Give the backbone structure.
Amino acid sequence: MVDFGVFLPNGSNGYLMSSAYKPYAPTFSDNLQITQLAEQNGFDYVLPMIKFRGFGGDTGCWDECLEPFNLVAGLAAKTEKIKFFPTVSMPAVHPTYAARMISTLDQISDGRTGLNAVTGWNKPEYSQMGLWPGDEYYNDRYTLAAEYVTILRELWQNGETTFDGKYFNLTDCKCYPVPKSHINIVSAGQSKQGLNFVENFADYRFIIANPNALKRLQEEVNSNKERKFGNYLLFHLLACDTDEEATKTVNEIVEKSDLPAIETMLFGGSGDKNKEGTLEALRTAKNAPVEEGNMAFGAHPCIYGSFKNVANKINDIIERTKPAGFMFAWADFKQGIKDFGEKILPNIEITKR
């Protein structure tokens, strides 16, 4: 079984940092249509992100963002099968409040809700609200994350907890009702610290699936290394009738990169000097080939080509890396999801169909 997911465009312009496509504001109506299309076209889950401050630029990148928990409540009430991973920013939302919101969504969705837990890296996003813990947080954020998820798990299992930590202190804290379902937690930890966190606290890890990351996964598969979690691979998809058409579109997106927005994003991560940290990843992506994750695509690696060749590339990745699933973004989400269901998914060898 391989899961397929949609990285919902609940922020301005989705995940493109380019003027090649007309900028757009996120709306509930569009995200509902996208989610319902995903449900109809063989997708297993959708994930909305959170951004409290956009990157501006020529396109207004992420200047508007729909809040993910409220969004999922509306989407869950109007769907039947598809699952949800709303994103919680751990520095911004207290774990007891997040626990209660997820318990509520568990009821609304009838057990279809998990949680995407992020540590936060963009200092201006949090300092504007007085919530930035200080620059030492770049080195200590997974301490906060470990405390946060420990509290979540205890509240979901027992409905109460007493906890004494560095970042959180709870005394006989109650949180009822508890979820009826196990709540799957996903995290995008890419660094060594992040990987250790996922190993101990998460059910799935999102991987920015550039060639080096895929190579490491293949080595793990070949060595029969066991992990406690499943890997979800993040890609931008761009499929057309021909390879030439797809290549032309990809090149146009890169040529029309929103450089002011990209520079603002780079500045936001400039405090993270850790090896494999945010700044290193974003700097590498600024001029990277699209297969490796160019900033025009939000630093997400892009699988592009004809519908047949995109399916072949996905098949090859599945065969080499044995992922638990994928999460995709598109320049045009509605058309991309329809094309995936009609022209790509039938040619993917390992599916649930």
Q: What stands out?
A: The mean pLDDT is 94. Residues 191 and 276 are 5 Å apart (CA to CA).
